[in-house]
Amino acid sequence: MTIKITGTGSYIPANIEKNENFHDHEFLNADGSAIKAPSEVIVKKFKAITGIDERRYAKNHLNTSDIASFAAEKAIEKANINREDLDYIIVAHNYGDVRHDSQQSDTVPSLASRVKHLLRIKSPKCVAYDLLFGCPGWVEGVIQANAFIKAGIAKKCLIIGAETLSRVIDPYDRDSMIYSDGAGAVVIESSDAEGGIITHETATFALDEAHFIYFGETNNPEIKENRRYIKMYGRKIYEFALTNVPLAMKSCLDKSGYTIDDVKKILIHQANEKMDEAIVKRFYELHDMEMPAGIMPMSIGKLGNSSVATVPTLYDLILNDDIENQSINDGDVIIFASVGAGMNINAIVYKQ
């Protein structure tokens, strides 16, 4: 028995927020001091580092659970299964449903229960729960579903990564330009076909690294409010990821029985183009090789960083020929990898 992805789906919000839309923003340092550069210069430097030209924001009437259900519908349709046969629905997110213009995250009931409701699944044997694991949440959801199927307690699982980060960003923080909204989903099930999930690797670094990404106050000291926003120590995250993600990827590959030459694509969390490139280069350096051209498909330039949604969305786009000059074919060995709040790292070696 193998465990394979049999259906994929994604939802890319319609609202496009281009870089030039930030030219009128007042960006401040974390201590509230003014940044001694025009906003146009700040945005230009941001683009050079992250590779982001634009990002997507959900329409005001949609919440994270809504867009999660849209991606799920597509994955179920692609898998050609009866939704009533699903044993688990796992929804990875970080901030719950945050309604437009609201300061409060809503996580009761769970987003997974809301998605099940929106999908109109009647069977009580379909268990729905949320997974909070930072940006690697979707990858970890696949790892958990794989374990359920291997243990014989499930046959079909739906794993979704969805987020509306546009609703938890501080407009005075330069990092706010990184984040976006989106959703990606897959159905995984037992199969007699070759390939599927080969090996996986997960690690949590929390002794010194737990608060590298956190909820904090606005950078504007003149605003007195109880609201909190997504914040991060970018340099610390970069150094942490560059050291630890390649090692996790190598460990995962080493266990798989495949070699570095077998790897056709690396689908890494779309966090920051320069950081992702540095991670994959370091991974190949661990094998005394140069990073091959085209090995690392990217979607961040047009879609931004939608956290848990980036990897499944990228995978779905490639399978649907929506990423230029990129494809994944039957029999290809690929690596899914992610890093994020916690600090958590994970990877999967998967044979298409």
How are the strands of the largest sheet arranged? 1-7-6-4-5
Oligomer: single chain
Largest sheet: 5 strands, mixed
Determine the fraction of residues in helical runs and give it as a percent range: 25-40%
Distance between the termini: 15 Å
Strand residue content = 15-25%
How would you characterize this protein structure?
The chain has 352 residues and is of the alpha/beta class. 28% of the residues lie in helices and 25% in strands. It is built from 8 helices and 13 strands. It has helices spanning 39-50, 64-79, 111-118, 137-150, 234-256, 273-285, 300-303, 310-319, and strands at residues 2-11, 15-18, 54-57, 88-92, 127-131, 156-164, 181-191, 196-204, 213-216, 229-232, 263-268, 333-340, 344-351. It has a 5-stranded mixed β-sheet with strand order 1-7-6-4-5, with helices on both faces. A 4-stranded mixed β-sheet has the order 8-13-12-11, sandwiched between helices. Helix 2 (64-79) packs across helix 3 and helix 5 (234-256) crosses helix 6.
Labels describing this entry:
13 strands, 352 residues, alpha/beta, five-stranded mixed beta sheet, four-stranded mixed beta sheet, 28% helix, 25% strand
Topology:
Elements: E1 2-11, E2 15-18, H1 39-50, E3 54-57, H2 64-79, E4 88-92, H3 111-118, E5 127-131, H4 137-150, E6 156-164, E7 181-191, E8 196-204, E9 213-216, E10 229-232, H5 234-256, E11 263-268, H6 273-285, H7 300-303, H8 310-319, E12 333-340, E13 344-351
